[in-house]
Amino acid sequence: MKAQRVAPERGLGWFQSGWQTFTAAIGAWLLATVIFLALALILSLVPPIGNLILALISPPLTAGFLLMARSAQEGEPVRVGLLLQGLAEPGVRGSLLGLGLVSVIGTVIGGIFLVVTGAAGMSGAEPVARLSPAILLGWLLYFGIMILVGLALLFAVPLVTFTRREAWPSVQYSLAACLQNLGAVILFFFAYLVLAFFAALPLGLGFLILIPVVMGAIYQAYREVFPEEAFPEEAGVGPEPR
Asked: Looking at residue 74, what DSSP letter applies?
């Protein structure tokens, strides 16, 4: 399987497709997003276990959003029940939870860096003088790990969802595809950060729109970077064996 190289500006174009996907079934997208955010809120009330559970099940829930995006782009009814399809279908549930384990491991390692560097910054006779560099280093390491996890999962989730590949090969394909399309991926994540900032301003209500748009954008990115997997009948090939 070979990833295609896309123009860097497609990192923004994916959001345009995501918006079109959202507007194709606004009601279903809003309801699914409310369910997702409510679940995330409930799990956040029992840290840190709840946060780790959310990290574990996020790939299967993302798979559900991607299935909704495919339905929208193909002109089919967008069913809210698709949100839980990744958890309900035995054929992909194990691999999607395997991707969730990647997220959990990244979250734990990042948290350890924050705790260790934070403790180092507060130790010594003059903790205030040593606070900023140590904590800054911890946050840089944390965000570095989270970025790596994001790159690993960006295309791994749709690959598992739509081709039923195993988790680890999908992670490898995703990382390779991101490196091959680094310009588009950087632009995509930068645009997301800007949009997330504005989405958070009205009490976070903007995420009711941003989350569906991002899911549609990820599906469009997958279609363009892995066209042989997204459109096997057009490319004349089928999914490779796992």
From this structure: T
Give CA separation, 198 vs 15, 25, 203, in Å: 15, 23, 10
* CA separation for the pair 239, 161 (Å, rounded): 12
**Which one, of 109, 96, 105, lies nearest residue 58 by Cα?**
96
The phi, psi pair for 176, rounded to 5°, reads -65, -40
In one-letter notation, the amino acid at residue 218 is I
8-state DSSP, 83: G
pLDDT digits (tens, 9 = 90+) for 193-229: 999 999 999 899 999 999 999 999 999 999 999 998 8
Our measurement of the distance from residue 55's CA atom to the centroid of its chain's CA atoms, rounded to an integer in Å, reads: 10
CB 29 within 8 A of CB 78: yes
76 DSSP assignment: -
Q: Which residues contact 15 (CB under 8 A, 6 or more apart)?
A: 188, 191, 195, 213, 214, 217
CA torsion through residues 140, 198, 41, 19, sign:
negative
Helix (H) or strand (E) holding 73: helix 49-73
- Rounded CA-CA distance 93/87 in Å is 5
> What are the phi and psi torsion angles at 42 (to 5°)?
-60, -45
CA distances from 6 to 23, 40, 179, 185 (A): 25, 33, 12, 10
Question: What's the rounded Cα separation, in Å, for the pair 72 and 215?
Answer: 11
CA 217 – CA 19 distance, rounded (Å): 8
Q: pLDDT tens digit string along 118-141?
A: 766 666 545 544 456 878 888 999
d(CA 16, CA 23): 11
